[in-house]
Amino acid sequence: MMDREDEEKIVEYYKKTLREDAKEGKTLADAYRHIKNHKTQGYTTRLFLVDWEGYFNENKCPVCGKTITLKETQYLCEKCGYTMDADLYERARKQYEEKKVKQEKAAEKERQLHKQGYTQKKLDELYEKAVKETVKEEEDESR
Length: 143
Ligand SMILES: [Zn+2]
What we know:
Bound molecules: zinc ion
Largest sheet: 3 strands, antiparallel
Number of helices: 5
Shape: elongated
Mean pLDDT: 87
Radius of gyration: 20 Å
Order of helices and strands: HHHEEEHH
Low-confidence stretches: none
Number of domains: 1
Distance between the termini: 45 Å
Number of strands: 3
Structural class: mainly alpha
């Protein structure tokens, strides 16, 4: 039988992933903002979801769903005119792929913790604790 990891270790693990997420999501956030600005031009700003899987793997336009094509240094949708700089697109695609791998690893880690007897409720509590400690540490650092 596997040794049960102690709770402090799990909190430390969550804190580490929180800090990594904050650093690594930046390019994807830039791409999201770019699409959002384009999509909401002339409309009221509201939340929407980007189909990243379709966007990066099937080259679907995030605005209208038609196929986007690479024209010189830009990805272009000929139907609605949406464009994204190829450099930002490629960096965001790479970050998206890395994020998917990380999410799979995180899911595997939680499956292990469940096997060790931790309930989802308990893990949620430890995650909450990690969020609170991370926020507090960041406040202390910026002081
Ligand atoms: Zn389009």
